[in-house]
Amino acid sequence: MSTVTFLQPLAVYTVAALATAGVILRPFSWPEAIWAMLGAALLVILGLLPIRDAFTGIAKGTDVYLFLIGMMLLAELARQEGLFDWLAARAARLAAGSARRLFLLIYGVGTLVTIFLSNDATAVVLTPAVAAAARAARAEQPLPFLLICAFIANAASFVLPISNPANLVIYGNHMPALLQWLPRYALPSLLSIIATYLVLRWTQRQALRLPISHEVSVPALSLCGRIAAFGIAATAVVLMTASAFDVALGLPTFLAGLATAGLVLSRSQCGGVLSVAKNISWGVLPLVAGLFVLVEALDKAGLLAQLSQLLHKAGNAFPDGTAWGVGAGLAALCNVMNNLPAGLIAGNAVQAAQAPPAVTSAVLIGIDLGPNLSVTGSLATILWLTALRREGQQVSAWAFLKLGALIMPPALVVALAAALIG
Predict the structure, then answer these.
(1) DSSP-derived 3-state class of residue 97
(2) Where residue 2 falls among pLDDT bands split at 50, 70, 90?
């Protein structure tokens, strides 16, 4: 471990705080990735982090990069081949002119996508489909339906280990087997999903009274569209299998995306590799890499060691009180520094401290649910904002915060209560 002078930890904390603020506030409207990478570069230039350790930090994110690439590739193939338009039209027809029914249908689909394909997939894959469904149904206000993609992406993200990449970094190499995970998180997840639906549905009650179209034509789904759908379904099976056998999820997701792309592009008339590649949000990869470097610097500066010692003492002395405090505290912290770096820090601290299961569960719930407070809380919400802009929709940080302040706390309280009481 690199040695640091007395002033170096303070300098590291300052650079990390400024870089995180840049990711959240996006000064000059620069993309989030630029601020994360600038912070990482500054740490190396100032001699606060050896370049060897910076590359070590980047390498630690390999599984997450592969996971995201695979998911983004599947999403772009589905969009390009018309799968989203087909699914949207089917959903709009099933709604039969009822905005409330369409809202419930989309919420159910979003829950399933999050559980079996991850919250990032909900942001990347489902958002364009929901936008298309709102257009097909001629909804006067499409935003209530699009908000579902953001909130359910976090609310259902701890049903399974694969439901959120943050789950991977919290448990690291100590991920519970699937049959251990389900009894621990099934009830908290169910209550989180229900509480989020009820509050979100209540906040959108006025818009959902507006009529939507009864007559929706369903376009034909091409062979390549069916292959893309099969690829997404097969990826869900692959991820479930990998999770059951405790295999890292990044490489299977990446390979599933490549295999689907090979099958689709060999038959597609809509465009080739370049057409798919140019529409993928590649900027998310340097964003994640920069965040991993920032966390590596905080580790070298001694922050994680201090946190693990504190967590070890408090967790053993007051497990329930520590669990409540850590869960609520991390839920808030996610919105200050994003849940991926918060999860990396908390995960390393929990593993080093050998924290009690109740504390570890509270950490995971706080990291997964907390981001429903603000637009910068999770990578999934940032991806959702990017997808939203592509659809010509905008949500201000203040508008989301007002909603999140109503939606997140009840879900967090009931989920923590179920995890700790159970």
Answers:
(1) coil
(2) very low
